[in-house]
């Protein structure tokens, strides 16, 4: 059985007081599905969130990290720093990191290695832009993003990797991939894994969909056989909406 996962990415939202109230609202929710639930606050509020949620059903994860262990990288955060505040999972390769902060496949390969070396589970994000989808290039783009950042790995690290397919044209736009488009791409991703690593890896890696998942569309998207959950942006900033998605399984 693959793990079902719903992860909320708060992005650069919520100061300390706002984080406090969202954490309180999250603690008041009830999980009725088997999904693993995670939220990714900003770095400054990670420890506060970890303390607040450590006895709950919600795991606190990070939005990003640097590949180096420490040193002269002003403004950056390392894997061991994340671990020291209770984090066990990190999102890497989000399209906003790729687009606004110049993160390339090569940089992401190093980040994945650093996360794995530190025993952090990675939620690795990728996805095509609208022009790729329109030109029919979306599968080739996704395949190259996966190959370039992950295919130097052996099979065994994949037990610590979750994939998140996030078509860039659906992030924060209110436009979602249709459940069929999501399923087609997830099946393609699984086939790509199968071709390289075989059925055991392909059938055990959870593949999340991200891009305008909301309470009113989550059930249909999560109902597709190769969709194992979601990476949620906007709707994760409201505890009721987020748990409606968590409980959509
Ligand atoms: P969204 O963001 O749900 O607001 O579209 C998804 C994401 O960026 O992970």
What do these coordinates show?
Strands 3-2-1-8-7-6-5-4 form an eight-stranded parallel β-sheet. The protein contains eleven helices and eight strands. The chain is globular, with a radius of gyration of 17 Å. The mean pLDDT is 97. 42% of the residues are buried. The protein is of the alpha/beta class and 249 residues long. It has helices at residues 16-27, 46-53, 79-84, 95-101, 105-117, 130-134, 138-150, 179-197, 199-204, 218-222, 239-246, and strands spanning 5-9, 36-40, 58-60, 89-92, 121-126, 161-165, 207-210, 229-232. α5 packs across α7. 2-phosphoglycolic acid is lined by residues 9, 166, 171-172, 210-213, 231-235.
Summarize the structure.
Helices cover 41% and strands 14% of the residues. It is of the alpha/beta class and 249 residues long.
Quickly list its features.
249 residues; alpha/beta; 11 helices; globular
Assembly type: single chain
Main β-sheet, in a few words? 8 strands, parallel
The main sheet orders its strands as 3-2-1-8-7-6-5-4
- The percent range for strand residues is 5-15%
Itemize the secondary structure elements and their pairings.
Elements lengths: L4 E5 L6 H12 L8 E5 L5 H8 L4 E3 L18 H6 L4 E4 L2 H7 L3 H13 L3 E6 L3 H5 L3 H13 L10 E5 L13 H19 L1 H6 L2 E4 L7 H5 L6 E4 L6 H8 L3
Parallel strand pairs: 1-2, 1-8, 2-3, 4-5, 5-6, 6-7, 7-8
């Amino acid at each position: 059985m693959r793990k079902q996962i719903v992860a909320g990415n708060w992005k650069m939202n919520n100061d300390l007081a706002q984080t406090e109230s969202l954490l309180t609202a999250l603690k008041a929710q009830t999980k009725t599905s088997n999904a693993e639930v995670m939220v990714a606050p900003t770095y400054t509020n990670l420890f506060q969130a970890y303390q607040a949620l450590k006895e709950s059903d919600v795991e606190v994860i990070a939005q990003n990290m640097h590949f180096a262990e420490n040193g002269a990288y002003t403004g950056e955060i390392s894997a061991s720093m994340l671990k020291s505040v209770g984090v066990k999972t990190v999102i890497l390769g989000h399209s906003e990191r790729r687009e606004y902060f110049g993160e390339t496949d090569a940089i992401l390969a190093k980040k994945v290695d650093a996360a794995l070396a530190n025993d952090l589970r990675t939620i690795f994000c990728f996805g095509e832009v609208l022009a790729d989808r329109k030109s029919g290039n979306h599968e080739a783009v996704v395949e190259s993003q996966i190959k370039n950042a992950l295919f130097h790995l052996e099979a065994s690290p994949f037990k610590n990797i979750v994939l998140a397919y996030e078509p860039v044209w659906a992030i924060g736009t209110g436009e979602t991939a249709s459940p069929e488009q999501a399923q087609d791409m997830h099946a393609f991703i699984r086939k790509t894994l199968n071709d390289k690593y075989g059925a055991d890896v392909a059938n055990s890696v959870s593949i999340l969909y991200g891009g305008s998942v909301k309470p009113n569309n989550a059930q249909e998207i999560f109902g597709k056989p190769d969709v194992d959950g979601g990476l949620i942006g906007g709707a994760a900033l409201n505890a009721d909406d987020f748990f409606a998605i968590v409980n959509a399984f």
